[in-house]
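User: Predict the structure for this protein chain, please.
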Amino acid sequence: MIKAILFDLDGTLLPLDETKFMKLYFGGIGAKFAKHGYDPNQIIQAIIAGTEQMRSNDGSKTNEQAFWPVFFQRIQGDSNWFYDQFVDFYETGFDQVSESTSPSEVPSQIMKILDHKRIRKALATNPLFPKIATHKRIGWAGLQVSDFEWISTYEVSKYSKPSLNYYQCFLDKMGLKAEECAMVGNDADEDMAARELGMHVFLLTDCLNNHQGKDIQVYPHGTMNELYEWIESLPEVIE
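Assistant: Here is the predicted structure, written as structure tokens:
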């Protein structure tokens, strides 16, 4: 019996144009720091380098702790000032990036069905963003932070997708076995990796990422409406 569902965010609960998202995101950050005399391209390359460090994090530190030393290897400046500037961007400029998204009413309907069925919910977005940015994107999707029992952000996560350790952390936090959980996401590599632990999976195809050209027929898959039907078919959890 499925007792909990882990949801990806970008391209799953929050449909988006990934190329446009990155263009607006990096464009906004670059413009912000250009006003202070920094080369936007150097800032962006430092962010990319820090992000790659988070992607390869070995669990010895949080992703936040993995990111900043790499960033400051490439950019000189006061660390507290940079932290404040990034927070300010997420508070005041990040919402412009929502132009790359196409929110649907279906995810909020799915949340209600899961509550009715007593199926627990967690947000398994790749933890490459801080909490403030993740909470913003949850809002763009028409959802509430309180919809989820556990949310992965770079402050609390020590691994990234597709590491099986990333998914194991959810199981440990929620006190569940792999076969009691399902992972729903749009990335054939990062999200479907959860199946290697024994989790159920559902590959959302509306904003499909399949960079290695995998045969998606091996996974339960479908559109947002088909995901709704799949979730509607799940039995209620009886404790």
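Residues 18-98 form one domain.
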